[in-house]
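batch_manifest entry 22 of 60
target: Plasmid pRiA4b Orf3-like domain-containing protein
source organism: Bosea vaviloviae
requested by: lab member K.T.
priority: normal
notes from requester: please return tokens only, no post-processing; we will run our own comparison against the previous entry in this batch. if the run fails, retry once and flag.
--- input ---
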Amino acid sequence: MISAASHVDRIASIKIVLDHVEPAIWRRVEVPLTTSLRGHEVIQAVMLFENYHLFDFTIEIDGQSRRYGIPDPDGWIKLSDAKNTKLGPLTDRGLKRFAYTYDFGDNWEHTLTIEAIGDADPGLEYPRFVDGARRAPPEDVGGIPGFEEFVEAMAKPRHPERKRLIEWYGRVFDPEDIDLPTIKTNIAKLARRRAIGKAAFAKSRPSER
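--- output ---
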């Protein structure tokens, strides 16, 4: 049996694909196996979402499906607590692919595929953005139909809605530009927070004599 300690300094390479969109919008990241599903902030960081809305993961292992997210205090939606569920134990049980949904209004569905698991590079900080393609939709654009209309309007200088949408979005939308500088800034913040947390944990442990 693999112990929890073996997950320390092990990372998973994960490909994130936004479903129902062509050409594909995708990202590849490397995250520690000690990351909890509450760490969906990594997805938010590389897709340039703003974490305004609720989310859930749907995970199926051994024929059993379970949803993880922020538990509903009223019990209307049955969700296991994402904060208490780490990636490592799920991969130990054979997890290879799972689903992530963000914003139950716009309903952005993603497929996450664990492409590899290996040792972390001591010279790198994690989580880490590796690569990706195409710009993800802006917040509250109206789901897939709204995004398609948004992209079409932005691509046509004489489109009657283009001026209004530029004012709403704040600038011209380039679907090919993933905005790498912002992604790197977002990921660096998460990596820095993790490093501070690791240092604080190490400091809190009693020294060996």
